[in-house]
DNA sequence: GGCATTTGACCCAC
DNA sequence: GTGGGTCAAATGCC
């Protein structure tokens, strides 16, 4: 039976590495002198690095005979968190016991209140593709809680999940709890899109500001341009909003009538969990390549490493 | 046939 | 022991 688990793990690793290879090839073409797009390269690089991280973690787990952890969704978590909280002096029995324990809740979560006019939680569009994997009646709640995971869990090892529950007090309101961070490609495309939109918004505000012959005094009536931009944009509740330092923070945002922009944001932080975040950084967490100077040779090197890994697995 | 959803059973933390 | 989270077989849809 264990052999079956290892085989399916191997398949997952191959999927992850294949994805990385594809991305490396794409990057290779993007780096062509005439078609170079810095942003596109950034997005691809982040995807490639994430694939590497995922594959390495998978291989490490398989090497330790930990396929059950992969099947149980404990993949891609920091190695030290896998070993329990006893430190380095625990015995092998403890290791076995800990490996069977359900991992404590992920590093961060978001509590989002969404006012949905559709009346169906499945139609809440947050920009990601989700697959429902369970539903549960919750004690004391009038409505069941639905469990969703990222569609790209198997193909890209993305462990993001969310829970959606209709609010008791207002049936038209849904409470959405996000858990885990997207490491899939759609997250990167989304971030890229958001960056572009943000830049466009800033440009528009700057143009408007400049078009007025003289600048207004900066006070409550005439806030600075960047303040206006941030207000207009509202919270970007993609995981990129949460740095590792705020990884266990969660915030609530209500697109329902709350303020002039229809969005309210509150941030909550847990100090104890904050310490845990620092001690257990997630490998693929918030890696940015904006300052990285990458050459064509680097991209080729990426690809050759992926090919080696794939050859080894096949 | 492939993919998504449903739902009862199982596992684990408290 | 209980409740919440996840698994996986069954089922439905395209």
UniProtKB/TrEMBL annotation:
Its main location: nucleus. This is WRKY domain-containing protein. It is found in: Nucleus. Residues 82-98 have a biased composition (Polar residues). Residues 119-183 form the WRKY domain. It comes from the Eukaryota. One of its GO terms (cellular component) is nucleus. It comes from Perilla frutescens var. hirtella. Residues 76-111 are annotated as: Disordered. GO terms for biological process: leaf senescence; response to hydrogen peroxide; response to ozone; response to salicylic acid. The keyword Nucleus applies. Keywords: DNA-binding, Nucleus, Transcription, Transcription regulation. GO terms for molecular function: DNA-binding transcription factor activity; transcription cis-regulatory region binding. Belongs to the WRKY group III family. InterPro entries: WRKY_dom, WRKY_dom_sf, WRKY_plant. Gene3D superfamilies: WRKY domain.
């Amino acid at each position: 039976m264990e052999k079956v688990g290892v085989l399916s793990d191997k398949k997952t690793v191959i999927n992850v590495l294949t994805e990385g290879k594809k991305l490396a090839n794409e990057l290779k073409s993007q780096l062509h002198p005439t078609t170079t797009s810095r942003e596109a390269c950034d997005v691809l690089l982040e995807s490639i690095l994430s694939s590497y991280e995922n594959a390495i973690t998978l291989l490490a787990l398989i090497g330790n005979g930990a396929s059950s952890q992969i099947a149980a969704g404990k993949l891609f978590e920091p190695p030290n968190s896998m070993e329990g909280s006893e430190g380095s002096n625990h015995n092998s029995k403890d290791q076995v016991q800990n490996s069977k324990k359900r991992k404590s809740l992920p590093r961060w979560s978001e509590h989002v209140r969404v006012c949905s006019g559709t009346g169906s939680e499945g139609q809440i569009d947050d920009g990601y593709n989700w697959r429902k994997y369970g539903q549960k009646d919750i004690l004391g709640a009038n409505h069941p809680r639905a469990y969703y995971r990222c569609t790209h869990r198997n193909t890209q090892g993305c462990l993001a999940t969310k829970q959606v529950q209709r609010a008791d007090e207002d049936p038209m309101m849904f409470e959405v709890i996000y858990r885990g961070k997207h490491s899939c490609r759609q997250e990167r495309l989304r971030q890229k899109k958001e960056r572009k939109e943000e830049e466009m918004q800033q440009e528009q505000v700057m143009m408007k500001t400049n078009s007025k012959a003289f600048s207004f005094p900066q006070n409550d009536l005439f806030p600075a341009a960047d303040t206006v931009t941030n207000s207009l944009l509202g919270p970007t509740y993609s995981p990129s909003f949460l740095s590792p330092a705020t990884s266990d923070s969660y915030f609530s945002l209500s697109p329902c009538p709350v303020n002039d922009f229809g969005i309210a944001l509150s941030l909550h932080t847990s100090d104890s969990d904050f310490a845990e975040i620092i001690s257990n950084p997630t490998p693929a967490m918030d890696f940015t390549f904006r300052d990285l100077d990458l050459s064509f040779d680097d991209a080729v090197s990426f690809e050759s490493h992926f090919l080696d890994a794939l050859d080894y697995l096949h």
